[in-house]
Amino acid sequence: MSLKHKKALYIVSAAAVAVSAVIFALFSDGGVNGANVRFLGSLGIEVQKKPVEVVDIRIPEPFDLVYESYNDLQIEGGFDLRPYAGMSGTRYTYIVTNFPEDVGEEVRANVICVGRKQVGGDVMTVSLGGFMLPLNFMPEYER
Fold first, then answer.
1. N or C: which end of the chain has fewer CB within 10 A?
2. What pLDDT, in 10s, does the model give residues 21-45?
3. What is the pLDDT of residues 66-97, one digit of tens each?
């Protein structure tokens, strides 16, 4: 193998290692996902380890009536999305495994992140007759 080919192989190998490290950091328990699972756990919310949905979002500026109402829920939960108006972020959705009662359907926890920082979220069901709660809905349960 020529020196030129060895250099090319070395560069490709180094790039593969770098990409693998980034993927590991993002999807291992040490990345954003692991931080979200620990964050929810600190609120008494246990979830499956992998999100069922990861969606890029944009927090609107200005807030419309729907987002005003959603932000009221955030404020109730100890968050406020106003400082993040106009910013892009990511919504991670997890299946809740310890909701305190059987509601007849899957309960989900959403975590909104701007960068690597958790800035809001909710606990909800997806049916028309479902519910949406702030992330701090379980204060009476063990944390």
1. N
2. 444 444 444 699 999 999 999 999 9
3. 999 999 999 999 999 999 999 999 999 999 99
Long-range Cβ contact pairs of 57-61 (< 8 A, separation 24 or more): 57/88, 57/89, 57/90, 57/91, 57/112, 58/86, 58/87, 58/88, 58/89, 59/84, 59/85, 59/86, 59/87, 59/88, 59/89, 59/112, 59/114, 60/85, 60/86, 61/85, 61/86
Helix spans in 57-109 (H): 65-76
pTM above 0.85, yes or no: no
